[in-house]
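INFO batch 0412 | record 1 of 1 | parsing
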Amino acid sequence: MKKLLLPVVVIGVVLIAGGSYFHFRSAKPAPVDSSLRKVRNFTALDHEGVSQTLYRFVDEKAIVIISQDNGCEKLPGLISVLRKVQREYSSRGIRFFMINSNPENDRQSIINKAAEYGLRIPILLDPAQIVTGELSLRQTTETVVIIPKTWQIVYRGPIDESLRKTLAAIDSGRIEGQTDQLVQGTPLSLREKKRVSLKDEAAPLIAKKCLDCHTVSARPHFKTYEDLKENAAQIRESILTDTMPPFSIDSFYSSDVNELTLSEEEKKILIDWIDQGANNDGFGDPIVKWRKAINDEQHTEVTKAVKKMRRIYTGNTGAPVEVSGEGDTEFRYFQIGGPVPRDLWITAVHVQPSKRPLLQKASLIVASKPLTFFEDLASEIEYDNKCYDSSHYLLGAFMGIEHRENKQFRRFSVWGKQHQQPYKVSRTPLKLVTLVPKGHYLILETLNRGLGRPAFIRTKLDFYSDVQKVDRSKYRVVRGRMMNTPMLAIPPGSKSHFEHTRFYKINTGISLLSVIVHMHYRGRSAKVVQKDREGNVKTIFSIPNFNYGQTPYMEMIFSTPIDIPKGDMIGAICEFDNSSLNTRIHDTQTTVRHGISLGQSEMCNVHLTYAAQDENAEVWGVE
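INFO prediction complete | emitting tokens
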């Protein structure tokens, strides 16, 4: 586990545009040759699942990147030389990395090879050869050295004495290197670049991965081809830095049913299309055509799904409520009708806001008491933290009562960035059943965005079921559990601070169905981990590059449920950045504590949905 908690380190890329030799001997560094192109920022995973972002290491003296391939016969013979160089300079502000660009080397084999090397050097994963192309790498063992102050390559060559001399010069405040040396390595298996079609390749991908948000709420809007063309540079940068699209989960551990994360191959398609001029090779506007096609397909899909179900309950939020032009600053809660008259076995929810662009996020809470009970309870809590608002205390009341009296907190995302297409039915996780017991209440939690002017909204919900006969032995009931760190404290200036929830013991086997991770502007990464009876800890879910504004409230629904046996434990780890490297925050000089203010406080809230093997067992214990 300790290996997973090492500070994140970052490398960079550069394109050489002429100028093959650097030679500065004065103690005071001379101006850098302007013929060398500045490194472009990017983010990539390493073999341990750590997200590496270039511009986070602006204060380093140098970055060393070595081309690696599992089948390279020359590299093992250079390990002793590399170990000596790394031992000498890694403590002096010089970072070492390898990069693997062979798509035939899967991640597990790279992990195994790293263990063979016996080096603590992160290996970047570049199966689509995007970074490799940026670096113009051609051979295994080929090594480049980048100086972050200018983001330029000052050395390209082998792992030998010339590399050590370059690092020694940089360490002493000089820059002295060569970028024209011969490398005796194995040629990399580089893919031939092919022409990318907007009509057949890029447009369908953009429609599937981007338009759900970028035609409704997120900016820039991509409603036409001209919108894409105008924003091509921004799209390229967002892909390289992994800020778009959201849902940047690590598929090595688990996969999401919505499949919104771009694969490495998909990233390459879009980057190649942009680099080739972002041209339109079709007739008319393929973005408009694909947008309509996907909406029609989803409408048809939902219509077919609904036809196979019975509508078993309906309700609404009551009279329209006003939303200011700036949007909501806290959650709103609405009780959908009275106590349900019978057990409801729900497999789908159709959310129908009267003004779709207003509704940003909605979750459904199954409560054992009416909304007024929780409102009265929340009003009795003393406001001892200026960062909190009434909705925070109300949510705490829900969690406390439901966990105490019902051993679970049932809260399900039914509207978010993955639920915004017209008529789209929000399925409960993996088409299992959500049981609302007779006499319980349905509470809708909403957050509305501002449209620049006051507007009114009223939301209707239809509940569907495909359960023909209630049989508790046949259907797995969806339950909920919240894990958090209410006592978190993030030190001033910390670049990488980790907070751990407690470990919860599983008293009966469960199948994890989905995860919602919520942090604020300082959130960097998050993991759900499993500890077995022998104390071994492994990651089962990871968001390596959390980005508030892209990932908050998003429900990650697992393509395959994750089974946790009886006796094992589950916990969560959140990483935060409270330093000047985090451009989202302004105050880095104070200790940050738990609260709901995005800029002043933080959260590490991890909400799980699951199904228990024994419906009658008390599922959760503590370590």
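INFO post-check: The CA atoms of residues 183 and 426 lie 55 Å apart.
INFO record closed
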